[in-house]
Amino acid sequence: MTRTLAVDLCSLAYAAFATSVTLARWPAGVAGLVPVLLVYAVLAAAALLAPRGRAGGSLAGFLADFYPLLLTAGLYTAIGALNRAVGTSHDAAVQRWEAALFGGQPAHDWIRAQPWPWPSAILHVAYLSYYAILAAAPLGAWLGGDVLGARQTTLAMSVAFFACYAVFLVFPVAGPHYSFPAAHNAATAVAPAQLTYRLLDAGAAWGTAFPSSHVAVSLVAAGCALRFRRGLGLALAPLTILLALGTVYGQFHYAVDALGGALVAAAVLALASARARGNMAGPSAGA
Are 136 and 232 in contact (CB under 8 A)? Predict the structure, then answer.
């Protein structure tokens, strides 16, 4: 199998878009542009090489099938570098949406109003399960011998990532972790909360709050798992719901961010379902 797949076209489109936005927004005289552009060049090169990789050995085939997901951390970091270089965010607008929809600021108020250690521990563990969810959905299908299911899962998750990342590039929102003072109570003192805060401070990309890619991609991953590996999907679904709640309770995302991520997930899953029905009605498109 050496033809270009939809995931390759989506990756090329995102690389072109991100490169264009980065060149347009990067401030003159600020260092760091070249490493950011190299990240997008790597994504584009991987997309161009993927068709040949799928015809190669097991390692080449694995990388060709999963490269967009393997590169998401680098893409995420590149967005943060751009947004920090520019130094502007739209948190004030999102906070106004938050107040209009929810009558307050849930990301600030919830953990202070209900500082319960055990619920906090559960929600922070769910938040930390993000990468496990992302790995489990495509690998569950792939290890089960459903290569087509793994490819379709990777495509759906990649589209969700790219959709969120595209918004981050043009509408940066720092999020409540940076906009509000940190809470200090029994809920934030539990070990999972402390670990989460340390990891966030070490690796978060600034300006990547709205819509929540944590919510969007984990919901897409769980939805695809329900389709291709139902038992795995049933295990992931409640975890993703707790993760979505944890993003707000832990003051990592505004509630509007989580809602936006859920809407992105719903749109991507609807498109994936429509595409699958179209493939069943005509010649298979592979993934």
Answer: yes
Q: What is the mean pLDDT of the chain?
A: 94
Query: What residues are paired with 173 via a beta bridge?
Result: 208
Nearest to 232 by CA among 147, 156, 136, 97: 136
In a domain, 245, yes or no: yes
The answer as to whether 286 is a domain residue is no
Contact 54, 61 (CB under 8 A): yes
Residues 7/48, Cβ–Cβ less than 8 Å: no
**pLDDT tens digits along 39-59:** 999 999 999 999 999 887 688
Cα angle at 164 between 163 and 169, to 5 degrees?
100
Range of the domain at 58: 6-281
Number of domains within the chain: 1
Q: Supply φ then ψ for residue 35, to 5 degrees.
A: -60, -35
pLDDT number for residue 248: 98
**Distant-in-sequence, close-in-space partners of 241: CB < 8 Å, separation ≥ 6:** none
How large a percentage of the chain has pLDDT more than 90?
A: 90
* Residue 1 belongs to some domain of the structure: no
Query: Alpha helices of 105-208 — where are they, by DSSP H?
Result: 106-113, 117-128, 130-143, 147-170, 176-179, 186-189, 191-203
149 close to 271: Cβ distance less than 8 angstroms? no
- Give the integer Cα–Cα distance in Å for 112 and 133: 28
120 located within any domain = yes
